[in-house]
């Protein structure tokens, strides 16, 4: 997944939450954040605290993998392409 902005991240969190069948309240409790904070993150609010973002991603069973832009073709990180090149995961 290519994430180039806070809005992209918020939409991805929202989509993953829905995919897992979680409510905002349920995910907020799992991640140890407020429902209001999660709502702001999903809306793309730019003041989201990184530590809370990482806790929320962990609650969704996601991780962040930072890759230098110069190692990938194009101007941004295309995580879908990177994952295809890495092959299938074990889990």
TrEMBL record:
SUPFAM superfamilies: lambda repressor-like DNA-binding domains. Residues 13-67 form the HTH cro/C1-type domain. Signal peptide: none annotated. Gene3D superfamilies: lambda repressor-like DNA-binding domains (1.10.260.40). It comes from the Bacteria. This is HTH-type transcriptional regulator / antitoxin HipB. InterPro entries: Cro/C1-type_HTH, Lambda_DNA-bd_dom_sf. PROSITE patterns: HTH_CROC1 (PS50943). Transmembrane segments: none annotated. One of its GO terms (molecular function) is DNA binding.
